[in-house]
């Protein structure tokens, strides 16, 4: 405990780190205050109807409750994430965008600009669908056409402002701005979910023992998630020994840490964004809302939804790993620095070996990620409160674990850079070694 307070004191002594933490907290406070500001022209009755269920409930969790409150930040950063997904897909399929990705900093700036333009378009479409599904004509204090047009602009501006806050947290704060905004929205739902489940068990079925068992199960899922997030496969790399004068250069053995889940939370985010499509279609085409397949796809506890969701996660895990971990570039960099994997020839053989290792560790990583993603549905089926069940896995838990570990890593890097002790006894966060720089698309979302 003494070491903990000493570390907190050291964090506060570093002026740059202190300013970044304060900036981050202030930006997050602005976001939370804005999430309680209701759209203009909406009656007081609309916020008490509790219409955030199913997949819509998940979106409400990512938005920190803004969705159900009909807030100006109701759509959160999901349109921006969807735009990022589209741009990354275009980078694979369209040569113009693929070339742009290879242009370094200028190319990334162009892609970010395109992403912002696409965010505006997606937000406008989602805003219109949101207003149609969440606000009925009798809840509008303004005439219908004017209400929809005006609040489409307001929702679009709200999403762009949240996106700007995320970028400012990344630049002026401790980094991972968009991720932190989503994490804060998720954490804001935790106290209410905890209290609701406690009351449900103590006053209803199960009793206190069942509630304690649920907490133990939740702890086990969190530990399992941390193992998946931090798990790495180390590849030994030997560097050739050179003697210049009386000094020896190289001749040391190092390791390339390949993460079991190199894609992080992005596969679940990608899959979740696609799973929102049926709900969007149902809002634009009311006659199709009664279709049995659409109903199953919108029910996050249905077998069809979870099957498609798991398959999408596995596919996107391979896809995102392929575009973020470039085995060929790693092999070339290794060869340029006179490095080699023991028993493997430099060049194409090294490339094939690394690619084979990545493929082998990505399969179990993607399956475990899919299991974590569907645990909330299983928890809900066995009687856990819907809101509390969402913390048993899925996007919310992966985001919480990943963002907390990344934020701790950011803080630890500041401490170690100024010769202070890290947050852990070992001086570094175990398993948080990042993969060496590779060419390809830089993640713009989370």
UniProtKB/TrEMBL annotation:
Protein's membrane topology: Multi-pass membrane protein
Report keywords, A-Z: Cell membrane, Membrane, Protein transport, Translocation, Transmembrane, Transmembrane helix, Transport
One protein family per Pfam: SecY
- The principal localisation class reads membrane
According to its UniProt entry, the function of this protein is described as:
The central subunit of the protein translocation channel SecYEG. Consists of two halves formed by TMs 1-5 and 6-10. These two domains form a lateral gate at the front which open onto the bilayer between TMs 2 and 7, and are clamped together by SecE at the back. The channel is closed by both a pore ring composed of hydrophobic SecY resides and a short helix (helix 2A) on the extracellular side of the membrane which forms a plug. The plug probably moves laterally to allow the channel to open. The ring and the pore may move independently.
Q: Which HAMAP family match?
A: SecY
* Protein family membership: Belongs to the SecY/SEC61-alpha family.
Name of the molecule in the record: Protein translocase subunit SecY
Q: Which source organism?
A: Mucilaginibacter ximonensis
Gene symbol here is secY
């Amino acid at each position: 405990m003494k070491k903990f307070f000493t570390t907190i004191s050291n964090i506060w002594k570093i002026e740059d780190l202190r300013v970044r933490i304060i900036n981050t907290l202030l930006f997050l406070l602005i976001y939370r205050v804005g999430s309680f500001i209701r759209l203009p022209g909406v009656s007081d009755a609309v916020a008490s109807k509790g219409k955030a269920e199913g997949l819509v409930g998940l979106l409400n969790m990512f938005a920190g409750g803004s969705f159900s409150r009909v807030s100006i930040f109701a759509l959160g950063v999901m349109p921006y994430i969807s735009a990022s997904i589209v741009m990354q897909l275009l980078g694979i399929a369209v040569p113009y965008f693929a070339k742009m990705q290879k242009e370094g900093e200028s190319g990334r700036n162009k892609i970010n600009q395109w992403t912002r333009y696409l965010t505006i378009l997606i937000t406008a479409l989602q805003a219109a669908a949101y207003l149609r599904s969440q606000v009925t004509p009798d809840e509008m204090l303004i005439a219908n056409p004017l209400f929809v047009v005006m609040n489409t602009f307001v929702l679009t501006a709200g999403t762009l402002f949240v996106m700007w806050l995320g970028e400012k947290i990344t630049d002026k704060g401790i980094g991972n701005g968009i991720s932190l905004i989503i994490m804060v929205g998720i954490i804001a739902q935790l106290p209410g979910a905890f209290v609701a489940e406690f009351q449900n068990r103590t006053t209803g079925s199960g009793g206190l023992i069942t509630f304690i068992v649920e907490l133990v199960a939740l702890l086990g899922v969190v530990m399992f998630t941390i193992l998946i997030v931090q798990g790495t496969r180390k590849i030994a790399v030997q560097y050739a020994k050179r003697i210049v004068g009386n000094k020896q250069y190289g001749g040391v053995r190092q390791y390339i840490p390949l993460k079991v889940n190199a894609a992080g939370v992005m596969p679940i985010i990608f899959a979740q964004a696609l799973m929102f499509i049926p709900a969007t279609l149902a809002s634009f085409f009311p006659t199709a809302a009664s279709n049995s397949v659409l109903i199953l796809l919108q029910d996050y506890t249905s077998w069809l939804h979870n099957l498609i969701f798991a398959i999408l996660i596995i596919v996107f895990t391979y896809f995102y790993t392929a575009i973020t971990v470039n085995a060929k570039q790693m092999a070339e960099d290794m060869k340029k620095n006179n490095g080699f994997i023991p028993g493997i020839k430099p060049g194409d053989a090294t490339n094939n070996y690394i690619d084979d290792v990545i493929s082998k560790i990505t399969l179990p990583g993607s399956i475990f990620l899919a299991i974590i993603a569907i645990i909330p549905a299983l928890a809900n089926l066995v009687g856990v409160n819907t809101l509390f069940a969402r913390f048993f896995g899925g996007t919310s838990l992966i985001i919480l674990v990943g963002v907390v570990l990344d934020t701790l890593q950011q803080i630890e890097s500041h401490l170690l850079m100024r010769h202070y002790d890290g947050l852990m006894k070992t001086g570094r966060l175990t398993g948080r070694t990042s993969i060496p720089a590779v060419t390809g698309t830089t993640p713009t979302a989370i």
